[in-house]
Structures are given as structure tokens and as C-alpha cells.
Amino acid sequence: MTSVSxxxxxxxxxxxxxxxxxxxxxxxxxxxxxxxxxxxxxxxxNGQLNAQIQVLLYNNPDAYAAVRANExxxxxxxxxxxxxxxxxxxxxxxxxxxxxxxxxxVIMAGWMRLVxxxxxDAFPKQIINIHPSLLPSFKGVRAIEQAIEASVKxxxxxxxxxxxxxxSGKIIMQAAVPVLPNDTxxxxxxxxxxxxxxxxxxxxxxxxxxxx
Length: 212
Ligand code: GRF
Hints:
212 residues; alpha/beta; Rossmann fold; 34% helix; globular; binds 5-O-phosphono-beta-D-ribofuranosylamine
């Protein structure tokens, strides 16, 4: 059996990160499974992240993330992008909903939609995204397939600030993950997600503290 060496995370999260004095008010945006939403909720529950999830926004009516939110009694609001003609119109609705729920930091955890200036202006430097590659490599959709096609031996995940250009904002934290010879997109994604669930809560704490 191939042994997988422990993942490298930078900046280091092996010691407890400094936590903000009052809970950070989060709005999480997700489109699908919501395992990253769950990881953030879990980190809050375990006392690893001093935060509060004010609301989950989801854009697919059958997103499992909404089920996870219901199970945790966290408000989940469906904003279906298909019902909006322009991306700005969609973002205006998103901003309104986030503001209604008193959100300070917006966390895109598998949202998979491009943002407009409307959202960026409402939450300047306070929107975070998680992407399944070591940016700036393999931006956009199919990041995991792109890594396998390029025969890279190490890939990973990145938490970064969101800017108008896709997957391009300032990098907050990254974790490296080995690509194994027989990896499929599915096996590699599973290995990457283990690291995503570690670094997303840590990166939220880090980003929020550095702006205090
Ligand atoms: C994650 O792999 C994330 O990097 C990407 O979308 C996926 C969402 O997964 N942006 P989940 O819904 O949190 O399980």
C-alpha cells in the first residue's frame, strides 16, 4: 500500500490560532454537498473557531448543504441564480439577504458562481473562497481533472480573498496534497477535501484577525 505523507499547510496551523474576541458573523454560500459548510460549523462547535453562522445561502434547490443547515438549525435561504437575468441582479439579492442576517464575512464554500462588483463593494476584502488546487495553478471548474491531466505530483487547496477575476484574490492559506499514480478525480478530490476541512476554518480565523 502506498503511504501518504502528512500534508503541508502554510501558514502553519499546528498550534492554536489566535481567535477574535467576539464571534465572527459568517454567511456561507454553497451549491452542493456542503461538506465545507459542515467543517466550519463543526470547528465552531468544537471551539476551534470563534464564529457564528448567521445564514447559509444556496442556489440549487436540491443542495445537500441545505439539509445539513436544517439539521443544525441554521437558517438556509435558497437564491436560485436561474431566476435572475443579470449577475448584478442576483448579487443585489445576495447582498440584501446577507445584510438582513447581519453578516460580516462571506464564505464561498463551493458556490461556483462568478461575483460582480455589487457583492465585492458590499463586503470589501471580506469575501473568502475555497478552491481545490494550489492557485494560481488550475483555476476555474474541473481544477482536479486539470491537475491529473497535467500529471502534477502535488496539488492541494487554497483559501483566498475573492476579487472580480476568478480564483485570483489574495491567498490566505494553502495545503499541499500528493497526487497518487492511480488517482481518479474522485479519489483525489476526497484527499483534497480532508485538507479543505482543516484549512477553511483556520483561514477564516486568520483573515478575520488580521483585519481587526
Ligand atoms: C470544494 O472542493 C471546493 O474546493 C470547491 O467546491 C467543493 C465544495 O465541496 N470550490 P463541498 O460542497 O463543501 O463538499
